[in-house]
Amino acid sequence: MTQPSSPYTYPRIIRWGDCDPAGIAYTPRIFDCLTEALEAWHRDILGVDWLRLRTEMGMGAPIVHAEADMVRPLPPDLVLDIEVRVEEVGTASVTYALSARGPSGDEHFRGRMVACYIDAAAERAAPMPESLRQRLLANSE
Amino acid sequence: MTQPSSPYTYPRIIRWGDCDPAGIAYTPRIFDCLTEALEAWHRDILGVDWLRLRTEMGMGAPIVHAEADMVRPLPPDLVLDIEVRVEEVGTASVTYALSARGPSGDEHFRGRMVACYIDAAAERAAPMPESLRQRLLANSE
Amino acid sequence: MTQPSSPYTYPRIIRWGDCDPAGIAYTPRIFDCLTEALEAWHRDILGVDWLRLRTEMGMGAPIVHAEADMVRPLPPDLVLDIEVRVEEVGTASVTYALSARGPSGDEHFRGRMVACYIDAAAERAAPMPESLRQRLLANSE
Amino acid sequence: MTQPSSPYTYPRIIRWGDCDPAGIAYTPRIFDCLTEALEAWHRDILGVDWLRLRTEMGMGAPIVHAEADMVRPLPPDLVLDIEVRVEEVGTASVTYALSARGPSGDEHFRGRMVACYIDAAAERAAPMPESLRQRLLANSE
Q1: Long-range contacts, stretch A93-100, CB < 8 angstroms, 24+ apart
Q2: pLDDT tens for residues C22-64?
Q3: Is B19's Cβ below 8 Å from some Cβ in D?
Q4: How far is the C-alpha of D137 from the C-alpha of D37, rounded, in Å?
Q5: What pLDDT, on the 0 to 100 scale, is given for residue D123?
Q6: How far is the alpha carbon of C138 from chain D, nearest alpha carbon, in Å?
């Protein structure tokens, strides 16, 4: 587990297949980047991957809101570090803020995603397990 | 060309491969749906596809902001109609509002996207061609 | 159900986001086209979609072999008809041959996929239900 | 550059979004894995990425044949090493053999891809540059 003081970053290279005929990342692929970063954060920082969350804890964490701003071009082979931060922790929801920076430190895109914890069987919002909530709070700002 | 009074809809079925092990559409695939709807609208309503915009008019229309709210589950084989509306037309940008409804008319997700017109060679914001702007205004609310 | 004599075709347009910076479909997207065509065939011709195959019949049909030959360029906006044919029906497996043709009738790519029927719970090969097998044979060559 | 004797491997984790409602990788995503491995090999071993191949050398290397056999299940979070080997070097084409192994060394899928070198402007097969050909031969079996 990292300390809240050292932000978690997920490394991601923009691939040939992420890019469209204009030579820059196709918009939906940016949400692939954001969601991959969140998945890795869940596994590495919360300590539970999305599969075990479902099979062992009987819960899911579907994303109910996602947004992104593209602020600099995203050509093939660009190496990004995507920072994941917990912005807000509710009873059954978490808001994440993400920011992707290139080798020079310039931001290329940023995003925000809201995950809602649900009881996987009932398919209904449900308070997240207290152990997860504590880890979320310990890693929030 | 449709009349502004009859909203444009893009039909889209949620496919097996759009869905993740939780059995619902994986978040980035929702942005695939939104972007596909916008691409079809550009071709069918504006009358110029993204390839010709680039090769014949020397312009691009990258999306600089995208967001979506997922309000109902999206299982495989769900048939959606995605409505595309022009919300705002600027000098070099357009804001679109999109809404995806299932067979019963219930909304499953909605989104908003902002496209910025650029000079493709200079990779810089540029006023959109007047012919496009007129068609955009004629199809806005 | 179509007659075996009139081949089943799945319409598919090559989208902007299917294409890479070289301006043609990125190879994995061709397998998206092939798998989508097979999914539609399963629903339209066999009469059972992959979700119901799993939830109602307790079976799956994972693809154990897939291949494709790309014989003509695949630029954005190309409209294809992908023909799906049953080439061989075994006890627990089916071989499909697919061919994608453009508006002029020219073939742009062709593929072959082998699906293996499994008991979904046991995750083991299992004979397909006799009703499915009869429909497969009725639609094979 | 690695020696031909130490095979090049590309690390790849099977992600949540690679998998379908059956809980295993959706077939086209396996071709994403294979193509990503080939792209990385091109950059790391041949020393020229696909973008520079196009912009600096005026060439492309589209894949004209691709195939894969899925031999073991591919659940989320499975960590794979994908080995890339040059199987055959022609005047204007290269055949690659790829194999993806899990942590225990078991093979989960294998593939074969044929890339054809083309003159990017003429969109026609063309002999690959001699420098590339020498590096390909030095890294073939």
Answers
A1: A93/A64, A93/A117, A93/A125, A94/A61, A94/A128, A94/A136, A96/A38, A96/A41, A98/A34, A98/A37, A98/A38, A100/A12, A100/A33
A2: 999 999 999 999 999 999 999 999 999 999 999 999 999 999 9
A3: yes
A4: 19
A5: 85
A6: 26
Query: Is B26 near chain A, with CB under 8 Å?
Result: yes
For C89-98, the pLDDT digits (tens) are 999 999 999 9
Q: Residues D24-44: what's their mean pLDDT?
A: 98
Q: What is the ipTM of this complex?
A: 0.95
When CB atoms are compared, the residue of D50, D63, D67 closest to C66 is: D67
Quick check: A105 pLDDT over 60?
yes
CB–CB contact A28 B26 (8 Å): no
Please give the Cα distance from A25 to B28 (Å, whole number).
13
Would you place residue C6 in the very low, low, confident or very high pLDDT band (cuts 50, 70, 90)?
A: confident
The neighbours of chain A, by the rule of 3 or more Cβ pairs under 8 Å, are B, C, D
Task: Give the nearest partner residue to B16 out of D16, D21, D76, using CB atoms.
Answer: D21
Q: How far apart are CA B17 and CA C42, in angstroms?
A: 14
Nearest to B76 among D21, D23, D76 (CB): D21
